[in-house]
Design goal:
alpha+beta, two-stranded antiparallel sheet, 42% helix
């Protein structure tokens, strides 16, 4: 469940929560990363946040596997 504070945060960084809620599929869910053994944000909100991070050049995909690299812009953002 996304809290009011979470909604305000995501809206402040440019993620349109109402638009994502209307998309088919699951809005938000926890997703276990088996490599790290920790949960991360999944569902359509997780995809939207990932896409924002790529679009803003906060992360760059690794061409050899599914990992990402944090850029200097990403270090400032996070």
């Amino acid at each position: 469940m996304l809290t009011n504070i979470g909604t305000i945060y995501f809206e402040s960084i440019g993620v349109d929560i109402n638009k994502i809620k209307k998309q088919p599929g699951i809005f938000i869910k926890p997703c276990l990363d088996w490599t790290e053994r920790t949960f991360h944000l999944g569902g359509n909100l997780g995809k939207a946040f990932f896409n924002l991070c790529v679009r803003e050049n906060f992360i760059v995909s690794n061409t050899e596997n599914r990992s990402v690299y944090l850029t200097s812009s990403g270090e400032k953002f996070f």
